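Incident log, support desk, overnight shift.

02:14 A customer reports that sequence design results differ from what the structure should imply. Their input is reproduced verbatim below. On-call engineer (initials T.W.) acknowledged and began investigating.
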């Protein structure tokens, strides 16, 4: 198991079944070229599912970053760019070939049948008690509306945007809240 700490959350993923675009040399070589990535990619073998996961600490954003349009644009860019990187791998472009070594072997080739590989885009917002889940529902609706055509190209029916407490309480992913460190 590999444990990651990001955005005040702890995500535990099985060894060898995940990757981070940010750790790939191909991604690093594109640094500064307006390319964004989602935090984690996890291959859930028993369900033939590749999860693209983004963790965002909504409690520590600047006022400008908390604005719905700013947050949506950031999420949409991360989703779109991450799907483009996968498509480059499957299309075997020059850059795509460089990314292949980062991907678990079952997802290195383009799936020839829809059941061979399912993709899930999963955005998790860490919130505090003062934030309302209604706000997240409105953001989720707008996110799905704006990404509908793009994700349809990858046989993705909808994008998930949930608060971290829902993920933890319903055991949707191996996620925990980190205890705050006081100095």
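02:41 Re-run completed on a clean worker. Output:
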């Amino acid at each position: 198991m590999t444990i990651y700490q990001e955005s005040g959350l702890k995500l535990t993923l099985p060894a060898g079944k995940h990757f981070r675009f940010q750790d790939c040399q191909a991604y690093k070589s594109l640094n500064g070229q307006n390319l964004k990535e989602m935090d984690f990619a996890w291959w859930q073998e028993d369900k033939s599912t590749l999860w693209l996961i983004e963790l965002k600490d909504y409690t520590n954003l600047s006022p400008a970053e908390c604005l719905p349009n700013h947050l949506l644009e950031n999420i949409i860019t991360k989703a779109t760019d991450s799907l483009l990187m996968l498509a480059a791998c499957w299309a075997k472009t020059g850059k795509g070939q460089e990314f292949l070594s980062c991907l678990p072997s079952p997802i290195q080739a383009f799936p020839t049948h829809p059941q061979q590989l399912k993709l899930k885009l999963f955005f998790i917002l860490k919130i505090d008690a003062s934030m309302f889940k209604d706000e997240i529902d409105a953001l989720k609706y707008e996110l799905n509306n704006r990404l509908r055509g793009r994700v349809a190209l990858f046989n993705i029916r909808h994008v998930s945007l949930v608060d971290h407490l829902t993920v933890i309480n319903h055991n949707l992913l191996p996620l925990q809240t980190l205890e705050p460190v006081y100095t």
